[in-house]
Each structure stands twice: as structure tokens, then as C-alpha cells.
Write a structure and sequence with these properties.
two-stranded antiparallel ribbon, mainly alpha, about 45% helix, 2 strands
């Protein structure tokens, strides 16, 4: 199951997400980014960091 943490992207935030698929994970990340970080859209440079921070067991 893929997972990621905001801290792995360089943000001072304790958010962690885990989902069954990467698509589901990205939905959680987008919702969190909008609510907690006021990012209505995730900038391309941040999206690159998010994708690199995704961990799969």
C-alpha cells in the first residue's frame, strides 16, 4: 500500500496518508493540501516532491 508524509516533502506537518492505490493516495493528499495548506491546486514542483516521497512496501 502506498503511503507518504508531509514531512518527507519538506513541510512542518504531521500528516500521513496510506491508501490501497496511488490514485487513492493522491486524492487524500490533494484534499489535505487544500484544507491544511491552502493549496487549491498542487504546484508542479510540490507534486514532483510528493511523487518522490511516496513509499511502497
Amino acid at each position: 500500500m502506498p503511503s507518504m508524509r508531509c514531512k518527507d516533502v519538506g513541510l512542518d506537518c504531521d500528516f500521513e496518508a496510506t491508501a490501497a492505490t496511488e490514485d487513492e493516495l493522491m486524492k487524500q493528499v490533494a484534499e489535505h493540501a487544500a484544507e491544511a495548506h491552502n493549496m487549491k491546486t498542487i504546484p508542479p514542483d510540490v507534486m514532483d516532491k510528493v511523487k518522490k516521497a511516496i513509499r511502497t512496501p
